[in-house]
Design brief:
- By secondary structure, the protein is an alpha/beta fold.
- Helices cover 25% and strands 25% of the residues.
- The strands form four sheets. The chain has a six-stranded mixed sheet. Strands 8-9-10-11-14-15 form a six-stranded mixed sheet, with helices on one face.
- Helix 1 packs parallel to helix 3.
- It starts with a strand and ends with a helix.
Length: 352
């Protein structure tokens, strides 16, 4: 595995790194994948999209066919913020913080989605992007998928926000747990601590996921154990992308405050240390984890490794016992309001 230092493309301070594992099996197809480890430009979605394009261009320059970004890269992960919430109380500043956060989110579909699609087509890569999705006045932590022809494929909404995330994000449902079949493999995603939900993982395995994208905000060492376990359990490649952020990547106080720690944080203090990683179906670490700064972490994925690993263990195949254990996934949308006129129109269209 080689470590190559490249230009920073004007992104923050310090270099970007590319780690490339070239030990692929020439009898099986390979896919060059890149995990982006970088910070959002908080409250500035146009600037964040500009940064995403610079990073995407850098990755495409290495020959990457698949480029994945961290959780909430577009729209931002509001680390350290409590939005003025305590049990039974809200503050005016907290409501204003939510207004600004809502303003930085994106509509799906919408102009920002169109731009991301155009970027994927321009650089001829499959692009997977973590965003904060705005649906009316509810926000969702979402992953968007794009193909190398610049087409939007679909999305996954986080079905279970963690802890205080539940104050600001809605809950996805079973209708957005896709696995997309593409020429470079079957791609799906689970976001952050969703990856610790065995039934969700099983649903993805049943859909045949081969390249499992795990964007996160968890930079702890223990996260690596989860990623290795999923790779072994699912017989799939795991690509985990996290942001590397310093205090100065967020607006200064009092506009943005890190609750309980503000006095201790200098502008250069690391508030999210990254740890992005690529792991093979055999559990081998192909690239990363990186805790050094903003980085492009790349590896060549030998897709033949999937069959080799599943010879030992196929969690929804020869190692399942459906007569003893089974899972039912309710994969229809759960809409709070249904209009009968709309339903009747749809039924008549189907009959025709």
């Amino acid at each position: 595995m080689a470590l190559v230092t490249t230009s920073s493309s004007g992104v923050n301070d310090g270099p970007l790194f590319a780690e490339v594992d070239m030990g692929s099996d020439f009898n099986a197809p390979t896919v060059r994948a890149t995990v982006v480890q970088a910070s959002t430009i908080f409250y500035d979605t146009p600037a964040t999209l500009d940064k995403a394009e610079r990073l995407l261009a850098e990755a495409a320059g290495y020959g990457s066919q698949l480029v994945v970004f961290p959780e909430a890269f577009v729209g931002g992960y509001p680390r350290g913020s409590n939005f003025g919430v305590s049990i039974g109380n809200r503050t005016p500043k907290g409501r204003e913080d939510f207004r600004k956060y809502h303003s930085a989110a994106i509509d799906v579909p919408g102009p920002e989605v169109d731009r991301l699609a155009a970027m994927a087509g321009k650089y001829k890569v499959y692009l997977v992007m973590g965003v904060i999705e705005r649906d009316g006045y509810t926000l969702y932590c979402t992953v968007l998928f794009f193909d190398s022809h610049g087409r939007y494929l679909g999305k996954h909404r986080k079905i279970m926000p963690t802890a205080l995330e539940r104050i600001i994000w809605g809950f996805g449902d079973g209708s957005t747990i896709p696995v997309f079949e593409t020429p470079i493999g079957k791609i799906g995603a689970a976001i952050c601590w969703e990856n610790r939900m065995p039934l969700l993982r099983t649903a993805m395995y049943a859909k045949g996921v081969e390249i499992y994208y795990a964007p996160t905000a968890d930079a702890r060492d223990v996260w690596q154990a989860s990623m290795t376990h999923i790779a072994l359990e699912g017989g799939c490649f795991v690509l985990s992308a996290n942001q590397f952020c310093r205090r100065k990547d967020y607006p200064p106080a009092p506009e943005y405050e890190f609750c309980g720690t503000e006095e201790e944080l200098t502008p250069d203090a690391v508030v999210c240390a990254g740890g992005s990683v690529i792991i093979s179906p055999s559990g081998a670490v192909l690239a990363g984890p990186n805790y050094d700064g903003e980085a492009l972490i790349s590896a060549d994925l030998d897709l033949g490794e999937i069959a080799r690993s599943k010879f030992d263990f196929d969690v929804v195949g020869h190692y399942s016992r459906p007569e003893v254990l089974s899972l039912v996934v309710k994969d229809h949308p759960t809409n709070p309001v249904t209009f009968t006129s709309t339903t009747e129109t749809e039924e008549k269209t189907k009959i025709k």
